[in-house]
UniProtKB/TrEMBL annotation:
This is Indole-3-glycerol phosphate synthase. Its EC number is 4.1.1.48. Residues 4-252 form the Indole-3-glycerol phosphate synthase domain. The gene is trpC. InterPro entries: Aldolase_TIM, Indole-3-glycerol_P_synth, Indole-3-glycerol_P_synth_dom, RibuloseP-bd_barrel. GO terms for molecular function: indole-3-glycerol-phosphate synthase activity. Pfam families: IGPS. Belongs to the TrpC family. It catalyses: 1-(2-carboxyphenylamino)-1-deoxy-D-ribulose 5-phosphate + H(+) = (1S,2R)-1-C-(indol-3-yl)glycerol 3-phosphate + CO2 + H2O. It comes from Flavobacterium helocola. CDD domains: IGPS (cd00331). Keywords: Amino-acid biosynthesis, Aromatic amino acid biosynthesis, Decarboxylase, Lyase, Tryptophan biosynthesis. Pathway: Amino-acid biosynthesis; L-tryptophan biosynthesis; L-tryptophan from chorismate: step 4/5.
Length: 261
């Protein structure tokens, strides 16, 4: 059993436990549940950089990345740097995140927030809305086409955008549908953790133009972003490059300034 399989098994147990404790009615009563959302896809279409920065404490492949900064400091630094959106890890067991991180980010900034999570149930989408997300992530590798349709349409009904993550052509062809806003190609194989930008390059021409193309993971240089822009990518989700530095916000600002020159 690979790490992704383990994560999904644990996630399904976690969701069922939460359902038994916190009813949907309580989630829907949240102050933020009916708040307006920001469009990440529109910002990416009109951006020169397309950077989506991430708040990420640790990962299964890299252990601790950064435990030294508060959520507020990191996301404010990112917003000041001019990013198009912020990805917030909310998985606790494997990434050290929480829904409270998302809530703190929402209270600190006014740019689009992506709930970075292994979503397997509509309940998690309700949580995302209640805690301030503007976008949810769906991972094609762990969902059927029927599940992607159900979850993406449900997200849209709540005013949330959907970023679908794929890793190969089979996943893309199986999962592509009108209820998606952005298609993200993960350059990291979630089963082996091998990283290569070739995944994004190979799939670029297969993604229909009506979807915003996002390249995810393994991006750490100006040259990589500029190369991927040639393939039609408008979004670049950078998970560890900024977080592994002493000041993620300052590093994001430096990166974006050099990128748009």
């Amino acid at each position: 059993m690979n790490i992704l399989d383990k994560i999904i098994i644990d996630k399904k147990r976690e969701v069922e436990l939460k359902k038994s404790i916190i009813p949907v009615s309580q989630i829907e009563a949240s102050v933020l549940f009916n708040s307006r959302t920001y469009s990440m896809s529109k910002l990416l279409k009109n951006s020169f950089s397309g950077i989506i920065a991430e708040h990420k404490r640790r990962s299964p492949s890299k252990a601790i990345i950064n435990n030294n900064h508060s959520v507020e400091d990191v996301v404010l630094g990112y917003q000041n740097a001019g990013v198009c959106g912020i990805s917030v890890l909310t998985d606790a067991k494997y990434f050290g995140g929480s829904l409270d991180d998302l809530l703190l980010a929402k209270a600190s900034v006014n740019i689009p927030l992506l709930r970075k999570e292994f979503i397997v149930d509509e309940y998690q989408i309700l949580e995302a809305k209640a805690y301030g997300a503007d976008v949810i992530l769906l991972i094609a590798a762990v969902l059927t086409r029927k599940e992607i349709k159900q979850l993406s349409e449900f997200a849209h009904s709540l005013g949330l955008e959907v970023l679908l993550e794929v890793h190969n052509l089979e996943e893309l062809e199986t999962a592509i549908m009108p209820s998606l806003d952005m298609i993200g190609v993960n350059n990291r194989n979630l089963k082996s953790f091998e990283v290569s930008l070739d995944y994004s390059k190979e799939l670029a021409s297969k993604i229909p133009d009506e979807f915003v193309k996002v390249s995810e993971s393994g991006i750490s240089s100006i040259e990589a972003v500029k190369e991927l822009q040639k393939y039609g990518y408008q979004g670049f989700l950078m998970g560890e490059h900024f977080m592994k530095t002493e000041n993620p916000g300052s590093e994001a600002q430096r990166f974006i300034q050099k990128l748009v020159i």
